[in-house]
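Service request form, structural biology core

Requester: graduate student, group of Dr. S.
Request type: structure prediction, single chain
Budget code: on file
Notes: please return the result as structure tokens.

Sequence provided:
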Amino acid sequence: MIIASIFLLSISAVSWFKKPYVTICLILFLLPHQFILKKVFDNQFNSGDLFSIWKETLIIILLIKTYKEKELSIVKIQSLIVAFVILAVLFYVITDNHITSLANLRNYTFPILAFVIIATYKFDVGSKYIIRSIIYSSLIAICLGFVQQYLLNIPIATYKGTIDFIDDSGYIKYTTNSFRIMGIERMSGGFAGPNDFGVYFSLIVVFSVVLLSSTQRNLGSRLFNVITILNLIGSLACLILSFSRAGWFILLASLLVIFLIQIKSKIKTTFIVLVTILVTLALALAFIPETVIKASEVLTGSISMKEASAADRGNQFWKGVEKTITEPLGHGVGTSDIRYAESLGFFVESAWWNIGYELGLMGLILFLYINLQILLRIIHFRWYSRRYKVLFSFDSYAIALMVATIIAGFISINVVGTTYIYYFWIFIGLAFKTLNKSNAHPIFVNNNKNVNLLPDEIYDYHSEVNA
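Core staff response, request fulfilled:
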């Protein structure tokens, strides 16, 4: 308890006395390693539960600083978010098991709260530092993934608590079936499982592609560009070796959207993607040819619906639809989380239908409507910014990520994993920040004249500059 308390006090002090972007960097850097770190605090100091609130602690501090300095501007979407948070709290109150459902409530409320703070808080976004935090953290996750898969699988899995037993022949029986697919061992690194591992790296692959194809990144030395390229190759390898179909889908869907909206850098983006795929496959064929063959078997098995879990996705989807329609009032937070058997009432491999079961049809519609409203705002900004020089932002990445995630949420549960959902809302907040009227930096730079505009004011300004 003492070590965990010292850790929380230390990062809280950093968050309170440093600039806000430092806190965002801390969150983004630590998130991919939170599960293995929690196990360290659990196994060594018996204080994993206390450690696990570090994210929420930092977000609360940011929120206090926001109101303290009276810089939280009001946007229309905020009222919808407040309504969603209140609804989640109410459904937490009615649940039977408040202790086990608390983690679910935190994931409903704090990631979206992080979006509000980042999108509306007046501060230097520190893009260079945020981007480097993401890249360096993912490099650590890549290294841990390969160490786990090829060097220390049993020790790491034992430390994480994911092994049930090992029989006399050496066969490993995991606590869940997700650690293998069609008899193939899946890479999971320091994450709770291979699916969380895979969807995280789908985010990183797309982020690296957008970063490298950006003509305005201006992020520093050539060495960092080389590191980003190596990170892209390693991330793609980890994504493939995780055998996460949700991760593969998010990657492909995101890249498709990127190709559609990155008009000026489409050739460059295509080149980066193709070269990365070819290099990764060449290295894989050279060092792990059997894995490449197995990956192709899993892919074809999933597409042809011969793989068991893929074949059942259609049934899972329609089961979720039926349940949401026939029981639209909701059952309480945490009642569809398979981690808590004592409170489990229903579960399907669909994040959104599980939300519908927990928060009711109204909660699901409100959640998706919030996502749609944010997506439309960012698209609006992206369309308008094509006429002007735009400062570096996360807008194209956010659009691709939102489209892919909204679709994937109907066929996968993994988009509401803790690391993914926090990264998702933080990235969306960073993109949406450029729409904030109180932003310290200009949204558009036109004829050396700084112009700060909200979406509703864009049309008037567009008419004036073209009059």
